[in-house]
Design goal:
It is a single chain. It is built from 18 helices and 20 strands. It has 542 residues and is an alpha+beta fold. A 6-stranded mixed sheet has the order 3-2-4-1-5-10. The protein has a 6-stranded mixed sheet with strand order 17-12-6-7-8-18. The chain is globular and about 95 Å long.
Length: 542
Protein backbone atom coordinates (compact mmCIF):
# COMPACT_ATOMS: atom_id res chain seq x y z
CA UNK A 1 0.00 0.00 0.00
CA UNK A 2 2.80 2.40 0.92
CA UNK A 3 4.58 1.72 -2.39
CA UNK A 4 1.36 2.46 -4.28
CA UNK A 5 1.06 5.75 -2.42
CA UNK A 6 4.64 6.83 -3.17
CA UNK A 7 4.33 5.80 -6.82
CA UNK A 8 1.02 7.61 -7.21
CA UNK A 9 2.32 10.80 -5.59
CA UNK A 10 5.49 10.72 -7.68
CA UNK A 11 3.60 10.22 -10.93
CA UNK A 12 1.09 12.98 -10.12
CA UNK A 13 3.98 15.41 -9.49
CA UNK A 14 5.60 14.38 -12.80
CA UNK A 15 2.22 14.87 -14.48
CA UNK A 16 1.96 18.38 -13.02
CA UNK A 17 5.40 19.26 -14.40
CA UNK A 18 4.52 17.85 -17.84
CA UNK A 19 1.21 19.77 -17.74
CA UNK A 20 3.06 23.04 -17.04
CA UNK A 21 5.42 22.33 -19.95
CA UNK A 22 2.42 21.65 -22.20
CA UNK A 23 0.77 24.93 -21.12
CA UNK A 24 4.00 26.80 -21.85
CA UNK A 25 4.37 25.38 -25.38
CA UNK A 26 0.67 25.87 -26.16
CA UNK A 27 0.71 29.52 -25.14
CA UNK A 28 4.07 30.08 -26.88
CA UNK A 29 2.46 29.43 -30.25
CA UNK A 30 0.42 32.64 -29.71
CA UNK A 31 -2.47 30.77 -31.35
CA UNK A 32 -4.54 29.99 -28.24
CA UNK A 33 -7.13 32.63 -27.25
CA UNK A 34 -6.74 33.79 -23.64
CA UNK A 35 -10.08 32.35 -22.52
CA UNK A 36 -9.33 28.95 -24.05
CA UNK A 37 -5.83 29.01 -22.59
CA UNK A 38 -7.08 29.99 -19.13
CA UNK A 39 -9.72 27.24 -19.02
CA UNK A 40 -7.31 24.68 -20.46
CA UNK A 41 -4.64 25.59 -17.92
CA UNK A 42 -7.06 25.15 -15.01
CA UNK A 43 -8.06 21.70 -16.31
CA UNK A 44 -4.44 20.61 -16.92
CA UNK A 45 -3.42 21.69 -13.42
CA UNK A 46 -6.55 20.32 -11.73
CA UNK A 47 -6.01 16.80 -13.17
CA UNK A 48 -2.67 16.06 -11.43
CA UNK A 49 -3.85 17.77 -8.26
CA UNK A 50 -6.93 15.51 -8.18
CA UNK A 51 -4.86 12.40 -8.89
CA UNK A 52 -2.40 13.48 -6.19
CA UNK A 53 -5.29 13.47 -3.71
CA UNK A 54 -6.30 9.98 -4.94
CA UNK A 55 -2.74 8.76 -4.35
CA UNK A 56 -2.82 10.01 -0.76
CA UNK A 57 -6.11 8.35 0.03
CA UNK A 58 -6.28 5.13 2.03
CA UNK A 59 -8.21 3.38 -0.73
CA UNK A 60 -6.04 0.95 -2.71
CA UNK A 61 -8.43 1.26 -5.64
CA UNK A 62 -8.06 5.06 -5.78
CA UNK A 63 -4.27 4.78 -5.58
CA UNK A 64 -4.22 2.36 -8.52
CA UNK A 65 -6.54 4.70 -10.47
CA UNK A 66 -4.14 7.56 -9.72
CA UNK A 67 -1.14 5.57 -11.00
CA UNK A 68 -2.90 4.39 -14.18
CA UNK A 69 -4.36 7.74 -15.16
CA UNK A 70 -1.21 9.72 -14.28
CA UNK A 71 0.83 7.36 -16.47
CA UNK A 72 -1.60 7.78 -19.37
CA UNK A 73 -1.70 11.58 -19.02
CA UNK A 74 2.10 11.80 -18.77
CA UNK A 75 2.46 9.93 -22.08
CA UNK A 76 -0.28 11.94 -23.82
CA UNK A 77 0.90 15.32 -22.52
CA UNK A 78 4.53 14.51 -23.34
CA UNK A 79 3.57 13.71 -26.93
CA UNK A 80 1.48 16.88 -27.15
CA UNK A 81 4.40 18.91 -25.76
CA UNK A 82 6.72 17.39 -28.37
CA UNK A 83 4.34 18.21 -31.21
CA UNK A 84 3.90 21.76 -29.94
CA UNK A 85 7.67 22.22 -29.54
CA UNK A 86 8.20 21.13 -33.15
CA UNK A 87 5.36 23.41 -34.30
CA UNK A 88 6.82 26.32 -32.34
CA UNK A 89 10.20 25.84 -33.96
CA UNK A 90 8.60 25.73 -37.42
CA UNK A 91 6.53 28.86 -36.70
CA UNK A 92 9.65 30.69 -35.52
CA UNK A 93 11.47 29.66 -38.73
CA UNK A 94 8.65 30.86 -40.96
CA UNK A 95 7.53 34.07 -39.21
CA UNK A 96 9.52 37.25 -38.77
CA UNK A 97 11.88 36.14 -41.54
CA UNK A 98 12.78 39.25 -43.50
CA UNK A 99 15.90 38.13 -45.32
CA UNK A 100 16.46 37.43 -49.00
CA UNK A 101 19.50 36.14 -50.85
CA UNK A 102 20.96 37.24 -54.17
CA UNK A 103 22.81 34.22 -55.59
CA UNK A 104 25.69 35.53 -57.73
CA UNK A 105 27.73 32.87 -59.50
CA UNK A 106 30.79 32.86 -61.76
CA UNK A 107 30.39 30.57 -64.78
CA UNK A 108 32.87 29.15 -67.30
CA UNK A 109 32.50 26.61 -70.11
CA UNK A 110 31.74 23.10 -68.93
CA UNK A 111 34.76 21.70 -70.81
CA UNK A 112 37.06 24.48 -69.59
CA UNK A 113 40.14 23.13 -67.78
CA UNK A 114 39.86 26.01 -65.33
CA UNK A 115 38.20 24.80 -62.12
CA UNK A 116 38.61 27.76 -59.74
CA UNK A 117 38.34 31.51 -59.74
CA UNK A 118 42.09 31.77 -59.02
CA UNK A 119 42.89 29.85 -62.18
CA UNK A 120 40.52 32.01 -64.25
CA UNK A 121 42.15 35.22 -63.03
CA UNK A 122 45.64 33.76 -63.48
CA UNK A 123 44.76 33.04 -67.11
CA UNK A 124 43.66 36.68 -67.58
CA UNK A 125 40.02 35.81 -68.30
CA UNK A 126 37.64 38.59 -69.24
CA UNK A 127 34.42 38.37 -67.21
CA UNK A 128 31.05 39.32 -68.67
CA UNK A 129 28.64 41.17 -66.39
CA UNK A 130 24.98 41.84 -67.18
CA UNK A 131 23.63 45.38 -66.80
CA UNK A 132 20.22 44.19 -65.66
CA UNK A 133 21.72 42.41 -62.64
CA UNK A 134 21.97 44.19 -59.30
CA UNK A 135 24.99 46.41 -59.96
CA UNK A 136 25.85 46.71 -56.25
CA UNK A 137 25.97 42.95 -55.84
CA UNK A 138 27.95 42.39 -59.03
CA UNK A 139 30.46 45.01 -57.89
CA UNK A 140 30.63 43.42 -54.45
CA UNK A 141 31.35 40.06 -56.09
CA UNK A 142 34.05 41.58 -58.29
CA UNK A 143 35.66 43.20 -55.24
CA UNK A 144 35.54 39.88 -53.41
CA UNK A 145 37.29 38.16 -56.30
CA UNK A 146 39.95 40.86 -56.49
CA UNK A 147 40.45 40.75 -52.74
CA UNK A 148 40.81 36.96 -52.73
CA UNK A 149 43.25 36.72 -55.66
CA UNK A 150 45.13 39.97 -54.98
CA UNK A 151 44.78 41.54 -58.43
CA UNK A 152 42.26 43.42 -60.58
CA UNK A 153 40.11 41.56 -63.10
CA UNK A 154 38.92 42.57 -66.55
CA UNK A 155 35.14 42.88 -66.99
CA UNK A 156 32.93 43.72 -69.97
CA UNK A 157 29.32 44.89 -69.68
CA UNK A 158 26.40 43.54 -71.69
CA UNK A 159 22.82 44.75 -71.79
CA UNK A 160 21.27 41.27 -71.43
CA UNK A 161 22.11 37.69 -70.52
CA UNK A 162 21.59 36.78 -74.19
CA UNK A 163 24.21 39.32 -75.31
CA UNK A 164 26.61 38.01 -72.67
CA UNK A 165 26.10 34.42 -73.82
CA UNK A 166 26.64 35.50 -77.43
CA UNK A 167 30.00 37.03 -76.52
CA UNK A 168 30.83 33.95 -74.45
CA UNK A 169 30.19 31.62 -77.39
CA UNK A 170 32.23 33.85 -79.71
CA UNK A 171 35.15 33.66 -77.28
CA UNK A 172 35.21 37.40 -76.54
CA UNK A 173 34.74 36.61 -72.86
CA UNK A 174 35.72 33.40 -71.08
CA UNK A 175 33.51 33.74 -67.99
CA UNK A 176 30.21 35.26 -66.87
CA UNK A 177 29.34 36.80 -63.49
CA UNK A 178 25.58 36.86 -63.07
CA UNK A 179 22.59 36.14 -60.86
CA UNK A 180 21.56 32.47 -60.88
CA UNK A 181 18.01 33.57 -61.78
CA UNK A 182 19.35 34.92 -65.11
CA UNK A 183 20.71 31.48 -65.95
CA UNK A 184 17.37 29.93 -65.03
CA UNK A 185 15.68 32.33 -67.47
CA UNK A 186 18.18 31.35 -70.15
CA UNK A 187 17.58 27.63 -69.56
CA UNK A 188 13.84 28.11 -70.03
CA UNK A 189 14.00 29.70 -73.47
CA UNK A 190 13.66 27.52 -76.55
CA UNK A 191 16.92 28.58 -78.19
CA UNK A 192 18.95 27.92 -75.01
CA UNK A 193 17.01 25.08 -73.41
CA UNK A 194 18.98 23.61 -70.46
CA UNK A 195 22.01 25.62 -71.59
CA UNK A 196 23.67 25.69 -68.17
CA UNK A 197 23.46 21.91 -67.76
CA UNK A 198 24.99 21.31 -71.17
CA UNK A 199 27.59 24.05 -71.47
CA UNK A 200 28.36 25.79 -68.15
CA UNK A 201 29.89 25.06 -64.78
CA UNK A 202 30.21 27.19 -61.65
CA UNK A 203 33.67 28.06 -60.33
CA UNK A 204 32.56 30.48 -57.60
CA UNK A 205 29.38 31.17 -55.63
CA UNK A 206 28.68 34.38 -53.73
CA UNK A 207 25.40 34.49 -51.80
CA UNK A 208 24.61 38.02 -50.67
CA UNK A 209 22.02 38.16 -47.91
CA UNK A 210 19.94 41.27 -47.36
CA UNK A 211 17.47 42.27 -44.70
CA UNK A 212 14.19 43.72 -45.97
CA UNK A 213 13.30 46.52 -43.58
CA UNK A 214 9.67 47.59 -43.81
CA UNK A 215 8.75 51.22 -43.19
CA UNK A 216 8.00 51.84 -39.55
CA UNK A 217 4.28 52.35 -39.61
CA UNK A 218 1.38 51.27 -37.46
CA UNK A 219 -0.51 48.38 -39.06
CA UNK A 220 -4.13 47.78 -38.15
CA UNK A 221 -4.22 44.12 -37.06
CA UNK A 222 -7.81 43.83 -38.26
CA UNK A 223 -7.52 45.48 -41.69
CA UNK A 224 -4.43 44.92 -43.83
CA UNK A 225 -3.04 43.51 -47.09
CA UNK A 226 -0.60 40.64 -47.58
CA UNK A 227 1.40 39.98 -50.73
CA UNK A 228 1.77 36.27 -51.57
CA UNK A 229 4.71 35.63 -53.87
CA UNK A 230 4.92 32.14 -55.37
CA UNK A 231 8.37 31.03 -56.48
CA UNK A 232 8.15 28.18 -58.99
CA UNK A 233 11.70 26.86 -58.60
CA UNK A 234 13.58 24.21 -56.67
CA UNK A 235 15.79 26.80 -54.98
CA UNK A 236 15.71 28.39 -51.56
CA UNK A 237 12.57 30.28 -50.59
CA UNK A 238 14.79 33.22 -49.59
CA UNK A 239 16.52 33.46 -52.98
CA UNK A 240 15.69 36.38 -55.25
CA UNK A 241 13.75 34.81 -58.08
CA UNK A 242 10.93 35.36 -60.54
CA UNK A 243 7.57 35.52 -58.83
CA UNK A 244 5.29 33.25 -60.85
CA UNK A 245 2.33 33.68 -58.51
CA UNK A 246 1.30 37.15 -57.37
CA UNK A 247 -1.69 37.25 -55.05
CA UNK A 248 -2.81 40.10 -52.81
CA UNK A 249 -4.82 38.97 -49.80
CA UNK A 250 -7.02 41.82 -48.61
CA UNK A 251 -7.99 40.97 -45.04
CA UNK A 252 -10.79 42.51 -42.99
CA UNK A 253 -10.90 40.70 -39.68
CA UNK A 254 -13.87 42.79 -38.49
CA UNK A 255 -16.13 41.52 -41.26
CA UNK A 256 -14.29 38.17 -41.51
CA UNK A 257 -13.70 38.72 -45.24
CA UNK A 258 -10.63 37.85 -47.31
CA UNK A 259 -10.25 38.87 -50.96
CA UNK A 260 -7.62 36.95 -52.94
CA UNK A 261 -6.69 39.08 -55.95
CA UNK A 262 -4.44 37.35 -58.49
CA UNK A 263 -2.32 39.21 -61.04
CA UNK A 264 -0.83 37.27 -64.01
CA UNK A 265 2.93 36.76 -63.99
CA UNK A 266 3.21 38.13 -67.55
CA UNK A 267 1.43 41.43 -66.82
CA UNK A 268 3.37 44.18 -68.61
CA UNK A 269 4.05 46.79 -65.95
CA UNK A 270 6.44 49.52 -64.92
CA UNK A 271 8.83 48.24 -62.29
CA UNK A 272 8.79 50.23 -59.09
CA UNK A 273 11.69 51.43 -57.06
CA UNK A 274 11.63 49.21 -54.00
CA UNK A 275 9.62 50.84 -51.24
CA UNK A 276 11.45 48.68 -48.73
CA UNK A 277 14.91 49.54 -47.43
CA UNK A 278 17.56 46.88 -47.96
CA UNK A 279 20.53 46.26 -45.70
CA UNK A 280 23.38 43.87 -46.43
CA UNK A 281 23.18 41.60 -43.39
CA UNK A 282 26.85 40.70 -43.63
CA UNK A 283 27.73 44.35 -43.12
CA UNK A 284 25.12 45.43 -40.60
CA UNK A 285 27.65 47.39 -38.59
CA UNK A 286 29.41 48.90 -41.57
CA UNK A 287 28.52 52.19 -43.21
CA UNK A 288 26.79 51.26 -46.47
CA UNK A 289 25.01 53.67 -48.80
CA UNK A 290 21.35 53.12 -49.53
CA UNK A 291 20.82 50.64 -52.35
CA UNK A 292 20.55 52.33 -55.74
CA UNK A 293 17.43 51.12 -57.52
CA UNK A 294 17.02 54.05 -59.93
CA UNK A 295 18.08 51.87 -62.87
CA UNK A 296 14.93 49.74 -62.63
CA UNK A 297 12.44 52.36 -61.51
CA UNK A 298 9.89 52.92 -64.29
CA UNK A 299 11.35 50.24 -66.58
CA UNK A 300 8.83 48.20 -68.61
CA UNK A 301 8.88 44.50 -67.81
CA UNK A 302 6.80 41.51 -66.79
CA UNK A 303 5.52 41.46 -63.24
CA UNK A 304 7.28 38.14 -62.63
CA UNK A 305 10.65 39.78 -63.30
CA UNK A 306 10.15 42.26 -60.46
CA UNK A 307 11.05 39.37 -58.16
CA UNK A 308 14.56 39.32 -59.66
CA UNK A 309 15.14 42.67 -57.94
CA UNK A 310 13.74 41.58 -54.60
CA UNK A 311 10.46 41.26 -52.77
CA UNK A 312 10.35 45.04 -52.28
CA UNK A 313 10.31 45.66 -56.03
CA UNK A 314 7.42 43.22 -56.47
CA UNK A 315 5.46 44.83 -53.64
CA UNK A 316 6.13 48.35 -54.88
CA UNK A 317 5.07 47.43 -58.43
CA UNK A 318 1.77 45.94 -57.24
CA UNK A 319 1.17 48.93 -54.97
CA UNK A 320 1.45 51.17 -58.05
CA UNK A 321 -0.99 49.02 -60.02
CA UNK A 322 -3.71 48.87 -57.37
CA UNK A 323 -2.95 52.02 -55.36
CA UNK A 324 -2.92 50.08 -52.10
CA UNK A 325 -0.41 49.62 -49.28
CA UNK A 326 0.91 46.08 -48.86
CA UNK A 327 1.71 45.63 -45.18
CA UNK A 328 3.17 42.12 -45.18
CA UNK A 329 4.53 39.52 -47.54
CA UNK A 330 4.54 35.73 -47.67
CA UNK A 331 6.92 33.92 -50.01
CA UNK A 332 5.91 30.42 -51.07
CA UNK A 333 8.19 27.95 -52.79
CA UNK A 334 5.64 25.92 -54.76
CA UNK A 335 8.21 23.23 -55.43
CA UNK A 336 8.42 22.77 -51.67
CA UNK A 337 4.77 21.79 -51.80
CA UNK A 338 5.84 18.63 -53.61
CA UNK A 339 7.59 17.22 -50.54
CA UNK A 340 4.78 18.25 -48.19
CA UNK A 341 2.10 16.69 -50.41
CA UNK A 342 4.03 13.43 -50.69
CA UNK A 343 4.42 13.26 -46.91
CA UNK A 344 0.66 13.75 -46.63
CA UNK A 345 0.02 10.84 -48.97
CA UNK A 346 -1.20 13.05 -51.82
CA UNK A 347 -4.05 15.54 -52.08
CA UNK A 348 -7.47 15.62 -53.77
CA UNK A 349 -7.61 18.59 -56.14
CA UNK A 350 -10.61 19.82 -58.12
CA UNK A 351 -10.07 20.60 -61.81
CA UNK A 352 -12.48 22.62 -63.92
CA UNK A 353 -11.35 20.98 -67.16
CA UNK A 354 -9.75 17.93 -68.76
CA UNK A 355 -6.20 18.92 -69.74
CA UNK A 356 -2.63 17.70 -70.09
CA UNK A 357 0.45 19.37 -68.64
CA UNK A 358 3.98 18.88 -69.99
CA UNK A 359 6.86 19.92 -67.73
CA UNK A 360 10.54 19.06 -67.42
CA UNK A 361 9.60 16.41 -64.88
CA UNK A 362 7.05 14.63 -67.09
CA UNK A 363 3.62 14.64 -68.77
CA UNK A 364 0.49 14.61 -66.62
CA UNK A 365 -3.18 14.27 -67.56
CA UNK A 366 -6.07 15.54 -65.45
CA UNK A 367 -9.83 15.07 -65.70
CA UNK A 368 -12.61 17.48 -64.82
CA UNK A 369 -13.61 16.98 -61.19
CA UNK A 370 -11.62 15.52 -58.30
CA UNK A 371 -8.08 14.26 -58.98
CA UNK A 372 -5.90 12.49 -56.41
CA UNK A 373 -2.41 13.87 -56.98
CA UNK A 374 1.09 13.09 -55.78
CA UNK A 375 3.47 15.97 -55.11
CA UNK A 376 4.95 15.76 -58.60
CA UNK A 377 1.51 15.62 -60.23
CA UNK A 378 0.31 18.57 -58.13
CA UNK A 379 3.28 20.59 -59.35
CA UNK A 380 2.41 19.71 -62.94
CA UNK A 381 -1.22 20.68 -62.27
CA UNK A 382 -0.07 24.05 -60.89
CA UNK A 383 2.25 24.85 -63.77
CA UNK A 384 -0.01 24.28 -66.76
CA UNK A 385 -1.17 27.20 -68.88
CA UNK A 386 -3.16 25.06 -71.32
CA UNK A 387 -6.10 27.47 -71.34
CA UNK A 388 -7.04 30.45 -73.44
CA UNK A 389 -6.83 32.62 -70.33
CA UNK A 390 -3.75 30.70 -69.27
CA UNK A 391 -2.32 32.66 -66.35
CA UNK A 392 -5.70 33.35 -64.79
CA UNK A 393 -6.62 29.66 -64.85
CA UNK A 394 -3.12 28.73 -63.74
CA UNK A 395 -3.57 30.96 -60.70
CA UNK A 396 -6.90 29.30 -59.94
CA UNK A 397 -5.32 25.86 -60.20
CA UNK A 398 -2.53 26.88 -57.84
CA UNK A 399 -5.10 28.13 -55.33
CA UNK A 400 -6.87 24.76 -55.64
CA UNK A 401 -3.62 22.98 -54.75
CA UNK A 402 -3.10 25.29 -51.76
CA UNK A 403 -6.68 24.71 -50.62
CA UNK A 404 -6.37 20.92 -50.95
CA UNK A 405 -3.07 20.93 -49.06
CA UNK A 406 -4.54 22.96 -46.21
CA UNK A 407 -7.50 20.57 -45.98
CA UNK A 408 -5.12 17.59 -45.82
CA UNK A 409 -3.04 19.32 -43.15
CA UNK A 410 -6.22 19.62 -41.09
CA UNK A 411 -6.82 15.85 -41.34
CA UNK A 412 -5.32 12.93 -39.40
CA UNK A 413 -2.79 12.44 -42.21
CA UNK A 414 -0.89 15.34 -40.65
CA UNK A 415 0.11 13.18 -37.66
CA UNK A 416 1.84 10.43 -39.66
CA UNK A 417 4.85 12.57 -40.59
CA UNK A 418 4.28 15.50 -38.27
CA UNK A 419 7.89 16.32 -37.36
CA UNK A 420 9.23 16.08 -40.93
CA UNK A 421 6.25 18.09 -42.22
CA UNK A 422 6.97 20.89 -39.78
CA UNK A 423 10.62 20.92 -40.87
CA UNK A 424 9.54 21.31 -44.52
CA UNK A 425 7.51 24.42 -43.68
CA UNK A 426 10.65 26.46 -43.09
CA UNK A 427 11.87 25.63 -46.61
CA UNK A 428 8.48 26.29 -48.21
CA UNK A 429 7.18 29.45 -46.53
CA UNK A 430 8.68 32.73 -45.43
CA UNK A 431 6.88 35.77 -44.04
CA UNK A 432 7.81 39.02 -42.38
CA UNK A 433 4.64 38.81 -40.29
CA UNK A 434 5.54 38.47 -36.64
CA UNK A 435 4.46 35.54 -34.52
CA UNK A 436 2.11 37.83 -32.60
CA UNK A 437 0.45 39.00 -35.83
CA UNK A 438 -0.13 35.45 -37.07
CA UNK A 439 -1.27 34.41 -33.60
CA UNK A 440 -3.81 37.20 -33.45
CA UNK A 441 -5.38 36.03 -36.71
CA UNK A 442 -5.49 32.41 -35.55
CA UNK A 443 -7.02 33.40 -32.22
CA UNK A 444 -9.73 35.47 -33.86
CA UNK A 445 -10.45 32.57 -36.24
CA UNK A 446 -10.80 30.15 -33.35
CA UNK A 447 -13.19 32.53 -31.63
CA UNK A 448 -15.22 33.21 -34.78
CA UNK A 449 -14.01 31.18 -37.76
CA UNK A 450 -16.75 32.01 -40.27
CA UNK A 451 -14.50 33.62 -42.86
CA UNK A 452 -15.80 34.58 -46.29
CA UNK A 453 -13.15 34.03 -48.97
CA UNK A 454 -13.53 35.92 -52.27
CA UNK A 455 -11.38 35.37 -55.36
CA UNK A 456 -10.75 37.63 -58.35
CA UNK A 457 -8.18 37.62 -61.16
CA UNK A 458 -7.37 40.43 -63.54
CA UNK A 459 -6.67 39.67 -67.18
CA UNK A 460 -5.43 41.31 -70.37
CA UNK A 461 -4.43 40.81 -73.99
CA UNK A 462 -1.47 38.98 -75.56
CA UNK A 463 1.39 40.95 -77.05
CA UNK A 464 5.13 40.99 -77.70
CA UNK A 465 7.12 43.71 -75.94
CA UNK A 466 10.71 44.44 -74.96
CA UNK A 467 11.33 43.44 -71.34
CA UNK A 468 13.98 45.36 -69.42
CA UNK A 469 15.43 42.37 -67.59
CA UNK A 470 15.76 40.38 -70.82
CA UNK A 471 16.93 43.12 -73.15
CA UNK A 472 14.74 41.64 -75.88
CA UNK A 473 11.13 41.07 -76.90
CA UNK A 474 9.06 38.48 -75.09
CA UNK A 475 5.47 37.40 -74.69
CA UNK A 476 3.60 39.69 -72.28
CA UNK A 477 0.04 40.40 -71.23
CA UNK A 478 -1.15 43.99 -71.65
CA UNK A 479 -3.28 44.84 -68.58
CA UNK A 480 -7.02 45.26 -69.01
CA UNK A 481 -7.65 48.68 -67.45
CA UNK A 482 -11.24 47.76 -66.63
CA UNK A 483 -10.11 44.67 -64.73
CA UNK A 484 -7.58 46.68 -62.73
CA UNK A 485 -10.15 49.38 -61.96
CA UNK A 486 -12.63 46.76 -60.75
CA UNK A 487 -9.88 45.23 -58.64
CA UNK A 488 -9.27 48.62 -57.04
CA UNK A 489 -13.00 48.95 -56.42
CA UNK A 490 -13.45 45.66 -54.57
CA UNK A 491 -10.21 46.17 -52.61
CA UNK A 492 -11.67 49.44 -51.35
CA UNK A 493 -14.97 47.77 -50.50
CA UNK A 494 -13.37 44.97 -48.49
CA UNK A 495 -11.05 47.34 -46.61
CA UNK A 496 -13.98 49.66 -45.96
CA UNK A 497 -16.14 46.89 -44.52
CA UNK A 498 -18.73 46.89 -47.33
CA UNK A 499 -20.55 43.66 -48.15
CA UNK A 500 -19.08 42.00 -51.26
CA UNK A 501 -20.24 38.64 -52.61
CA UNK A 502 -18.55 36.15 -54.91
CA UNK A 503 -21.64 36.26 -57.13
CA UNK A 504 -21.06 39.98 -57.64
CA UNK A 505 -17.46 39.33 -58.73
CA UNK A 506 -18.46 36.41 -60.95
CA UNK A 507 -21.13 38.52 -62.65
CA UNK A 508 -18.51 41.11 -63.55
CA UNK A 509 -16.33 38.41 -65.14
CA UNK A 510 -19.24 36.86 -67.05
CA UNK A 511 -20.33 40.23 -68.42
CA UNK A 512 -16.89 41.13 -69.73
CA UNK A 513 -15.95 40.97 -73.40
CA UNK A 514 -16.14 37.43 -74.76
CA UNK A 515 -12.40 37.27 -75.33
CA UNK A 516 -11.78 37.56 -71.60
CA UNK A 517 -13.99 34.64 -70.63
CA UNK A 518 -12.07 31.52 -69.58
CA UNK A 519 -12.26 28.64 -72.01
CA UNK A 520 -10.86 25.16 -71.84
CA UNK A 521 -9.71 25.22 -75.48
CA UNK A 522 -5.89 25.02 -75.85
CA UNK A 523 -4.25 27.78 -77.83
CA UNK A 524 -0.98 28.40 -79.57
CA UNK A 525 1.51 29.73 -77.09
CA UNK A 526 4.81 31.56 -77.41
CA UNK A 527 8.20 30.93 -75.94
CA UNK A 528 10.25 33.69 -74.31
CA UNK A 529 11.66 34.63 -77.70
CA UNK A 530 8.22 34.74 -79.28
CA UNK A 531 8.56 31.68 -81.50
CA UNK A 532 5.19 30.00 -82.01
CA UNK A 533 4.83 26.46 -80.76
CA UNK A 534 2.25 23.97 -81.91
CA UNK A 535 -0.76 23.39 -79.71
CA UNK A 536 1.00 22.60 -76.48
CA UNK A 537 0.24 22.08 -72.87
CA UNK A 538 3.01 24.14 -71.37
CA UNK A 539 4.20 27.60 -72.28
CA UNK A 540 7.84 27.47 -71.35
CA UNK A 541 8.36 31.18 -70.94
CA UNK A 542 10.25 33.16 -68.44
Amino acid sequence: MKNLKITGITLSIVQLIVSLVLIYFAMSTKFVPFVYGFIGSIVLIALPVGLFMFARSRSKKLRIISIVFSSIFIILFSLASYYLAVANRAIDDVTGNNTEVDEINVYVAKDDEVSSINEAVSNDYTFAVVDTDDSDHIQETVEKIEGDVGKSIQTENFDSIYAAIGAFEEGRVKSIITNEANIYILDNTEAYEDYSKKKLKIIMENDIEEVVELPEEEVDKDIFCIYFSGIDTFGSVTAKSRSDVNIIAVVNNKTKTVLLLSTPRDYYVKLAESNKNLKNSSQENAAKPEKNTKDINGKDDKLTHAGLYGIGCSMGTLEQIYNVDLNYYVRINFSGFQKIIDKLGGVDVYSQYDFTSITEEGTYSFTAGENHLTGEQALGFSRSRNFKDGDRQRGKNQMQVIKATIEKLESSAMLKNYASLMEELGDTFQTNMGKDDVGYLVQSTLEDGNWKVLTYSVSGSDSMKVCYSLGTEAYVMIPNDGDVAYGNEIIGKVLGGADVSQDEIDNYIVNKDQEDIITEEPVEETTEEGNKKEETTEKKTD
